[in-house]
Amino acid sequence: MALLIIIYISFISLGLPDGVLGSAWPVMHVQLNLPLWAAGFIAAVVSLGTVFSALASAKVTKKFGTGKVTAVSVLMTAISLVGFSFASNLVSLVALAIPLGLGAGSVDSALNNYVALHYKARHMSWLHSFWGLGASGGPAIISLAFSLGYGYKTGYRAIGIAQFVLVAILFLALPLWKEKAVSKEFIDEGKTQKPLFIKGVPFALLTFFFYCSLETSTGLWASTYLVQVKGVAVEQAALWSSLFYLGITVGRMISGFVTFRLSNDIMIIGGLAIAFIAILLFFIPGSNSSGYALLLLGFGCAPIYPCMIHETPRRFGANSSQAIIGLQMASAYVGSTAMPALLGFVASSIGLVWMTPIQLFLVLGMLFCVIRLASLTKKSI
Question: CA torsion angle for 242, 248, 251, 252 (degrees, to 10)?
Answer without folding.
Answer: -140
